[in-house]
Amino acid sequence: MKIIEVDEELYQFIASHTQSIGESASDILRRLLNLPTSSVSSVALGAVAAESAVAAENPVSEAKSAVKNDFVLEPSAEKPAVEKTVVEKTVKKQPEQFISHIVNKVRQVIESDAFQEETKAVVRFLAILTALYRTNPEGFSLAIESEQVQGRTRVYFARDEATLLAAGTHTKPKQIPDTPYWVITNNNSGRKMIMLEGVMRGMQLPEALIEDIRGYFIVN
Fold it and tell me: Which H or E element spans position 175?
């Protein structure tokens, strides 16, 4: 395995084929190339490129391979993903009345005129994250810190911009309005929905709400 760089266009193309948070680049490539599924994940989420294709175009000497023995792909000039430790915390089951309160507040946001008239996915993305935080700050914090949302080696949410920039110069961090958190925004609408889905499931919100919100980010 080797460390390689890919240009921004290729990075975004392969990243768009990620089907779930936590899926490794190796899994993405095997699926795209119709290769057998590997039992070992070898790279960070969002990294994309075919090792065989790169090796053919850019041969790497055995000596260099011996030094760079981790397969990590990033857009050119982007820093490698920052390794992090995710501490799993116990999430207690929320009362149905409390869940209903959160659902009603989130629905008020997505049914508002401002949200309905908004055409930018990133603005809608941030508005929903703000609503989720306001209704349950503790649950939101636990959800975004979970491995299901953050992944094993990628940082998608943080308490400061610097942490997200350390994960890559192309992450385009933005602060979630009226919250102490920042989030990366350099992904397509489908990926934004995957992130929202992870947060909402972590907050124990119903599938019906998740499906309603999905319609604003994924067009069938």
Answer: strand 173-175
Residue 43: Cβ-neighbour burial (10 angstroms; 0-12, 13-18, 19+): buried
CA-CA-CA-CA torsion sign (21, 199, 139, 170): positive
Q: Which two tokens stand for residue 101?
A: 């309160």
Q: How far is CA 174 from CA 12, 16, 24, in A?
A: 19, 20, 25
CA distances from 123 to 158, 177, 209 (A): 18, 10, 19
H or E stretch covering 217: none
Per-residue pLDDT band at 8 (split at 50, 70, 90): low
H/E element holding 4?
strand 4-6
Residue with tokens 């929202």: 196
pTM (2 decimals)?
0.60
Tell me the C-alpha distance between 166 and 103, whole Å. 34
Q: How far apart are CA 164 and CA 123, in angstroms?
A: 19
Nearest to 68 by CA among 152, 165, 2, 126: 2
Instruction: Give the integer Cα–Cα distance in Å for 41 and 22.
Output: 9
